[in-house]
TrEMBL record:
Organism: Pedobacter metabolipauper
Keyword entries, A-Z: Membrane, Transmembrane, Transmembrane helix
Transmembrane regions listed in the UniProt entry: 86-106
Domain Protein FecR C-terminal: 263-330
Protein name: FecR family protein
GO MF, one example: sigma factor antagonist activity
Length: 341
């Protein structure tokens, strides 16, 4: 019994890197002696490991790696030299794992203690950018938009971000950390899904359209949260930012984020609404010289078209009732005419 305690003590000293040459010789001679069974060594190593004071890596990968070490040490047909080498290898692995875990815990603690700041990204009119948030969620930010998010997300806490403009989100799933987008009084909450939010403060209507997963849309009126709707793929909520009224319509899933690929789809939209969105996409200014033209409604799709091609299509759709003129730098476009077809 005393011999076991001595070997146990030597083994712990070896793991801690404190064993001297003489102590190592005693330990390895003990292990090389065929009278000492492998299962005895297994118990000693397991006991020393379990009594180790430091926190361990309990992930399935680490457990599987250590089980492989135990298995190797239990092979009864191993040669004495092999047993000696396995011990050194096992001890090295344990030491490296402990050291790595200690470093990781130290760095993780440093990160947790760092203050959380807010980061913002604003796009210019006509600009489109792709971003990756700290939780690996992907955001496509449209022109004339601004997104604000924390420098890091805390596991188990809400992932709150602020959007003024339009963006398509591919949210990394995390059931313990709801992802919430604040756009004025409108709130869009998900766990992990893809969807589009249109919420320019200057516009009357906001919208949320879902491509995959489920999205909950609510209204925050002075701290009072009112659930508006739960959306699934192919559903689109239209929210009136002025009076709080809303409606739910359907939308083709493939059109939810079509603007990301330079495809702009309008279904029964007034010319005023179409021009307003085209200004942001193309970085142009429209001069609608007859306000009645803004009431004309169209179904239109513009895919990888220049602004000149877009205006030509508008002219054709109007039955040649709408005229236009583009200035030399393609930045200002005048429209006039008597009305719609």
């Amino acid at each position: 019994m005393k011999e076991n305690r001595d070997i146990n003590r030597l083994f712990k000293l070896y793991l801690e890197g404190k064993a001297n040459v003489q102590q190592k010789d005693i330990l390895f001679q003990y292990l090389a002696d065929s009278k000492n069974k492998d299962n005895e060594f297994y118990d000693l190593m397991k006991e020393a490991w379990q009594k180790e004071a430091r926190q361990r890596d309990e992930t399935p990968e680490a457990a599987a790696g250590l089980e492989q070490i135990w298995g190797k040490l239990q092979q009864k047909e191993e040669k004495k030299v092999q047993r000696y080498q396995v011990l050194k290898y096992a001890a090295s692995i344990v030491f490296v794992l402990s050291s790595a875990l200690g470093w990781y815990s130290y760095k993780n603690q440093q990160i947790q203690e760092m203050p959380i700041g807010m980061i913002s990204k604003a796009t210019q009119i006509g600009e489109k950018v792709k971003m990756i948030l700290p939780d690996s969620s992907i955001v496509y930010l449209s022109g004339g938009s601004k997104l604000t998010w924390p420098s890091r997300f805390v596991k188990g806490s809400k992932r709150n971000i602020i959007l003024a403009g339009e963006a398509f989100f591919e949210v990394k799933r995390d059931v313990s950390s709801p992802f919430i987008i604040h756009s004025g009084k409108m709130q869009t909450q998900v766990l992990g899904t893809s969807f589009n939010v249109y919420a320019y403060p200057a516009d009357k209507e906001f919208s949320v359209a879902v491509k995959t997963g489920k999205v909950r849309v609510s209204e925050n009126n002075g701290g009072k949260i009112t659930r508006l709707s739960l959306l699934t793929p192919g559903m689109k909520l239209i929210y009136n930012a002025h009076n709080g009224k809303h409606a739910v319509n359907t939308e083709r899933v493939e059109e939810v984020n079509s603007w990301v690929n330079n495809k702009f789809v309008f279904r029964d939209k007034s010319l005023a609404v179409i021009l307003n969105q085209l200004e942001r996409y193309y970085n142009v200014n429209f001069d609608l010289q007859n306000v009645k033209l803004g009431q004309c409604r169209f179904n239109a799709t513009f895919y990888n078209k220049s602004i000149k091609d877009v205006m030509e299509q508008v002219r054709i759709m109007s039955g040649n009732h709408i005229k236009y003129k583009i200035n030399n730098n393609n930045k200002k476009i005048a429209l006039w005419g008597e009305g719609c077809q």
